[in-house]
Specification:
The structure is a single chain. The protein has about 375 residues and is of the alpha/beta class. The strands form five sheets. It has a four-stranded parallel β-sheet with strand order 9-8-10-11, with helices on both faces. Strands 1-2-3 form a three-stranded antiparallel β-sheet. A two-stranded parallel ribbon has the order 4-5.
């Protein structure tokens, strides 16, 4: 750290009896140190202040510097979170070694770097490792999608446990690993999608976004589009985005809208969806932006109501005669659905599944039908 600050201890000794000169000397060194650390520091920049205390004690004080110029959270480095201290230490060492040009053709082994960091800072560490890899061999283990910067086969390896042999198995062709093992990689590959959302210029110039409550809604809309004859009502001008679940619809819609997208929300007519609608209105979405499934002015429970009942039951029976083969599943008929007198086909099917709960049918999963 003193190397980066270009702090000469002998020179500092000369100012020990002159507080004003000592403060000026340390301020100059602190500014040099700050200038060399901030290029690698992601998020709001920091200011590093070196302070000298009687008894030859030197302390490091860190402040957060915000975009509007305000400075907050001034305090000792030792009082910061563990992840912050790890990042600070890593960047200091990285900057010092690279400035000395001593870190070349080395082998660096790291276990879970940036484990406790905010994703923004994790990206920063990832960038540093990428830079180090230019002249060194860098090997590190991670479970974080924010720490993957190279998806080239051979550069990214997946290690998973072979439970039968109790040995580690290494995949060079990592896409052949277990789906659960691949989860961080899949999230990492999706980074481009996230970055496109937060880019306001992309949002302002993009097609309208229509947010639906589930992936099955998205799949149905894409399927319906293939059968539309009138180009004026084609789904092509829209960008259909599926929320992870119902309670993520509101924040997802706000996020897209706040980043410049013309945002619309397509909802079921369930009580939960009506609550989502009220929350959207409370967050300044207009009623024009909130669309419910309906036919000829009549509210429909879900998108499945647009499908002919016999056709939908055919898909249900095809799916569950396999899934519930051991539970003696028998094909359902139109009459069984109609006699339930529910508000929609999904409620009717759920009622039938509840009747067979003791037989192990479990819960009716409508998303299974779209698969």
């Amino acid at each position: 750290m003193f190397y980066l600050a270009e702090l000469d201890m002998n020179e500092m000794e000369m100012y020990r009896d002159s507080p004003a000169k000592l403060i000026k000397f340390l301020n100059t060194a602190s500014n040099r140190l700050t200038a060399k650390l901030n290029p690698a520091w992601k998020g709001d920049p920091i200011h590093v202040d070196l302070r000298y205390h009687p008894g030859n004690i030197m302390s490091v004080v860190i402040s957060d510097v915000h975009k509007d110029g305000t400075i907050t959270n001034t305090g000792l480095l030792s009082r910061r979170a563990e992840g912050f201290k790890w990042t600070f230490s890593f960047i200091v060492n990285f900057a010092a070694e690279t400035q000395r040009a001593e870190l070349k053709e080395a082998i660096l082994l790291l276990d879970e770097p940036a484990r406790n960091l905010h994703p923004t800072q994790a990206f920063g560490i990832s960038d540093l490792l990428k830079e180090l890899a230019g002249s060194n061999q860098v090997l590190y283990a991670t479970h974080s999608p924010f720490m993957i910067f190279d998806y080239t086969p051979g550069n990214l390896l997946v290690v998973e446990l072979d439970k039968r042999r109790h040995l580690s198995k290494i995949f060079y062709d990592y896409w052949n690993a277990d789906d659960k093992t691949l989860t961080p990689i899949l999230y990492g590959i999706s980074r481009g999608l996230v970055e496109s959302i937060v880019d306001r210029e992309i949002g302002t110039n993009s097609r309208p976004v229509i947010i639906v409550e589930t992936m099955s809604d998205c799949m149905y809309l894409n399927a319906f589009d293939k059968f539309l004859q009138d180009p004026n009502i084609s789904m092509n001008p829209l960008n259909v985005v599926a929320a992870f679940n119902k309670n993520s619809v509101l924040p997802l819609a706000i996020f897209y809208r706040n980043h410049g997208y013309r945002t619309f929300i397509l909802l079921d007519s369930s009580d939960e969806s009506k609550q989502i609608s009220a929350q959207l209105v409370a967050n300044e979405f207009s009623k024009v932006q909130i669309i419910f499934f309906e036919r000829e002015g009549r509210a429909l429970q879900s998108i499945e109501e647009y499908i002919e009942l016999d056709d939908y039951l055919h898909a249900v029976n095809q799916t569950y005669e396999i899934k519930l083969r051991q539970e003696d599943y028998t094909n359902l008929t139109r009459d069984q659905i109609v006699e339930k007198k529910k508000s929609g086909v999904l409620d009717s099917l759920q009622s039938i599944w509840e009747e067979h709960n003791d037989e192990g049918w479990g819960k009716f999963e409508h998303e299974e039908i779209t698969r």
